[in-house]
Specification:
The complex is a heterodimer of chains A (155) and B (251). Chain A is an alpha+beta fold and 155 residues long. Chain A is built from 4 helices and 6 strands. In chain A, strand 2 and strand 3 form a beta hairpin. Chain A is elongated and about 80 Å long. Chain B is globular, with a radius of gyration of 20 Å. Classes of the chains: A alpha+beta (155), B mainly alpha (251). Chains A and B meet through helix 1 and strand 6 of A and helix 3 and helix 6 of B.
């Protein structure tokens, strides 16, 4: 390779390294800013703001889903093992929504501690919950319960 | 180190002759693989346990997303070659790959949105994977716009190469976004190494479909590049002879 090309290659690599480092730094800074959801425990403890849109995540409690007969209104309880929060949602739930499924709901808390959700999202993969939900479940010891339940249902 | 194989690419004539020989094979491979992969995946593969038939869009979504990223990587490599070695063909490849990549990126975003509504419950969420993929689409638009906006061919080549190179930083971000951050998008099912988290009768058609998309991409890229080479070298005698040969039947 002749010296001119070598020099140009070095400049190109320097551009690539420079932008790479800049972007990596920016993303590391953003990492601190990730909008973590509130667990039912945190909501029960009053840590979640009352008038802001928040995300709540957890497992849909078995046997807690109550559907209205004449509308799309549905009430269900999301639990992390330690505490529970009731979520009220009007709309079409994702196909993957079912009891025991990890979900994330976006909405506002009303005065009675019910989350009026305008969006309920389910994770894609059956065995995979949103990482945030998994983390919170591990902290509250619910994960083991969930895993046990899964193994139980396979047998 | 022997650079002969590399320097050959500096000759548009050599490229035109070689690509003419590869093109039929690639075209046939693309048609066969796409037909088999898509028919198998869309009609014969078993439905998924929970998503039932809606998961079948994976046979479009995943190959398109793969190609959108591979295409950008190819453009970045072409950008380096064009900046360092000033090879004209690299610039041709870069400019001609951009629209194909943009379409594939668009297809993966749209198919993902259609898939997201029934499974997640939303067409769009600003999670790391989806957002970085959208940025990739805008990078493609940027390269296309830059290439068309600058009339001086050398300046356009340089500007596009730098943008392709800088934008390549986005590719590892897309790839690892599902691992670095909490996203709604699930992590990769389809990895080269490690065990597949899919049964073989779902996984094989996906592999065939991905290979088919790669062959399709290569075919379309070579066709576009050949046309662009003829256009740029229109004053060369071999191009005049070739054009006369191609249009001979119509006279």
């Amino acid at each position: 390779m002749n010296p001119v090309r070598k020099k140009r290659l070095m400049i190109v690599l320097a551009i690539l390294a420079g932008t790479g480092i800049a972007v990596a730094l920016a993303l590391t800074a953003l990492q601190q800013n990730i909008n973590l959801f509130y667990t039912p425990t945190q909501i029960a403890a009053g840590e979640a703001p009352q008038d802001a849109r928040i995300r709540a995540g957890g497992l849909v409690k078995e046997g807690s889903v109550k559907r209205s007969t004449d509308s799309l209104l549905v009430d269900f309880v999301v639990t992390d093992g330690a505490a529970e929060v009731t979520i009220r949602f009007q709309g079409i739930l994702p196909d993957l929504f079912r009891e025991g499924q990890g979900i994330v709901a976006l909405g506002k808390l009303d005065g009675e501690g019910v989350l009026l959700a305008d969006e309920v999202l389910a994770k894609h993969d059956e065995n995979y919950m949103p990482p945030e939900v998994t983390q919170a479940l591990e902290q509250s010891g619910m994960m083991k319960h969930y895993e046990d339940g899964k193994q139980g249902s396979k047998q | 180190m022997n650079w002969t194989w590399f320097h050959k690419w500096g000759s548009p004539k050599w490229f035109y002759e070689m690509s003419g020989r590869w093109l039929p094979w690639l075209g046939v491979a693309a048609i066969l693989l796409l037909a088999v992969g898509l028919a198998w995946g869309l009609a014969f593969a078993p439905p998924e346990k929970y998503q039932l038939d809606s998961y079948r869009i994976i046979y479009i979504h995943v190959p398109a997303a793969f190609l959108a990223q591979s295409c950008y990587l190819l453009m970045a490599i072409a950008g380096v070659v064009s900046l360092v070695w000033k090879m004209k063909l690299a610039d041709v490849a870069l400019q001609q790959a951009a629209p194909i990549g943009a379409w594939l990126c668009f297809v993966s975003l749209v198919s993902g949105a259609i898939w997201g509504k029934p499974t997640w419950g939303t067409y769009w969420i600003w999670d790391a994977r989806l957002t970085s993929m959208l940025i990739l689409l805008f990078l493609y638009f940027g390269v296309i716009a830059l290439g068309n906006a600058i009339s001086n061919r050398d300046s356009a080549a340089k500007a596009c190469a730098v943008l392709a190179l800088v934008g390549a930083v986005n590719i590892p971000i897309i790839k690892y976004s599902v691992e670095f951050w909490n996203t709604l998008h699930q992590p990769a099912t389809f990895t080269v190494t490690g065990k597949a988290s899919m049964s073989a009768d779902m996984w094989l058609p996906l592999l065939i479909s991905v290979l088919g998309f790669y062959c399709f991409f290569a075919t379309v890229l070579l066709m576009r590049m050949r046309l662009e080479v003829l256009r740029r070298e229109s004053r060369a005698s071999w191009v005049k002879a070739e054009v006369a040969r191609l249009s001979g039947g119509n006279r």
